[in-house]
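#struct-help
A.M.: can someone run this one for me? Single chain, 399 residues.
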Amino acid sequence: MVNFLTSGESHGKQLTVIIDGFPAGYPFDLDKLNFQLARRQKGYGRGGRMKIETDRVEILSGIRNSKTLGSPITFAVKNKDWENWTKIMHPVDPISADLNLKEKRLAYETTYPRPGHADLSGGIKFNHKDFRNILERASARETAARVAVGSLLRQFMEYFDIQIASHVVSIGSVELPGDYKLPEIDELREITENSEVRCVDKEIEAKMIAEIKDAKKKRDSLGGVAEIIVKNLPAGLGGFSQPEQRLDSLIAAAIMAVPSVKGFEIGLGFQSAKIRGSDVHDEIFYKKDSNPRKKDFFRKTNNAGGIEGGMTNGEDLIIRAAAKPISTLNKPLQTVDVLTKKACEAMVERTDNCVVPAMGVVSEAAIAIVMANAFMNKFGSDNLSEIETNFQNYLKTEY
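D.P.: on it. Structure tokens below:
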């Protein structure tokens, strides 16, 4: 199993991630990893921070000559914005006395918690009244490190021809029609990479952008829904014997840990609660020598979204994640100064208007981590050669 730990503050020197348990012998591609980091930074509605940063990974350990060693892998993602924050965020030196007006606001006007953010709850938890100590780590900037991990695991999955993609279903009140048809995964990727909001429909895309523009004009923010798809999964990943083995539970935990995500569903999801079982469950068919990953069983529908009984059934994994509007508003909401206990307006940080396209990319990474671990759990070893042998034996074995 692959475990990882991220560290770093939003405006600190860097984000760092240590990954343990990744198998030896994998032919790692740094360009592919950096491409995923660049995807996370894109999307209409992103704020000024993305104009400063050009996220790239520096490899500090665990990889030699572009092959994984089996030892812990360490990645670092430098924060270019650190140079603008050293007077405020230095790990040893006290806050500088030489601050301009903007820096003084950022350094000292930090006692007005933002509704919807971690400020107040985190302050109470850690006994901080300077919410800079909370918001720096609670920031979604951390997801750059998570995407770096997910990109490594994604490359591992792609080695076994398991493909991941996402697209935006809705932003604010604008959404794709319920009967939309997605193109094949390669075309889906091409379309979404050329869309400012990662939408497959040009007309809907234009309406989404207009919705974001209107919210920005009113100094407000927007949420929305992204759909994530994983293709070519073998049947039988995951388990049912214990709660922590169930893939739907693990996927839910990973997606709900993405900042701003407030809702999650697999397949029909909440819609399945409104209709009868005969219209929900996917009938099973068989065609010999059709698909060894599914042991030649198949479904004509995929309402289950690729998961039954906590395990993959060989159909596409279909997941949707719903993100709330971002918590920091340029038209601040009412709050309370935790020092004086008097009513005031919430503090304002540099912020995005809409992060739904980026949320989809982060969710891809989160799912890649879960699914790669499930794959290694079934076929795993500590080196790629043995994993490949185990997987090929699975494909050859008749059921």
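A.M.: thanks! The chain is about 35% helix and 20% strand.
D.P.: also worth noting: The first helix runs from residue 30 to 41.
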